[in-house]
Predict the structure.
Amino acid sequence: MWYLNMNAVIAMIGMVLVLALTRRWSGNKRYLLLAFNLCFLYVFSHKLFAFYLVYTALNYVAFLWLGSIGSFRRTMFITLIAGNIAAVCGLRLYGMDVLSHPMFDAIILLGLIYNVLKVIDALYFAYFIGKDSRASVLDYFNYILFIPTFTSGPILKFRDFMADTKQPYTLTAAQTEENIKRIIVGMFKKIVLVAWMTEVFKTISGGELHTHESLFLMVWFYALIFFDFSGYSDIAVGFGRLMGYNVPENFKKPFLSPTLTQYWRNWHATLGDWFRDHIFMFFSRQTPTKWTAAALSILIMVLIGLWHGFSWLYAIWGLYHGLLLALENVFGKTTVIKRKVSRTYFYARCVLTQLLVTAAVVIYSGDSEAVYQIYRGLLNWP
């Protein structure tokens, strides 16, 4: 979201320059980054700034408490996670106009959707590591408020971010060039490609659809969301690494995934990894059976769907992918290793995977009228 606001982009470029000029100061990327994060939020929205000061402070106290208490740890762990989930669900209801209050702001909801995952990851770290999970208030605030990934990821892991804070700020000419190029490519995707592709999608979907037009729109929308999500990720990764933190990759050649299981490790990878890591760890800390893995796959994908929005469309989308993943687990077809099969078989499985994704991708739009129109058009032969 920040990256469509030129003032926000200029502010981040300025922060990178400040970090580069102060690179001899060992604490520059910790202290200066906190100042930047707080000032950025304050200028962007006073309401957002106030909310996150309180929200982050409360969760930092919870993080310290969970890491230090000896009794009732599991109860407190579950309670703290439930409290954060309830906060997101409550804001979701305000966003859907089910509830209303003058203090509600859509930007708070947008930020919290991703940042609650980071808060929960930190709580997991405190719960499973215990007294050795200490982190300074400075680093915890930077972790939650990190501006490059604030609204749409990629999702940072707590332990990885804390490891990065201990490393001095270094940036070579080659790294600078690579990340600047990546930001430019991401901007091109977001500002040029996505804007143009959105107009084409709206124009074609605005009239009566026939089979070939519906098929085109399904493929077109798939490409559109890829450029949208990967473009944002390119910009976030570029700025994050220019600020001294190794932001993880979000898209790892997803179109060359021979199974749905491998696809969801490559498409929006940090989100899928987060749900797998935390759901599997919570419900099955030992290696699950194929039936347990199948059931958890359905649960995870439905949760990912509802995480994107509280609607029957997202629930159906999650159930569809969950059932496909469950079938792969039950029949032992979760992985295809390229070097162990023929090229024809490997690429045929890749094509099959893309067809299965494309069949439901338009549901992801969240627009029930557009979804119904496109699927109805499939049956409308010219």
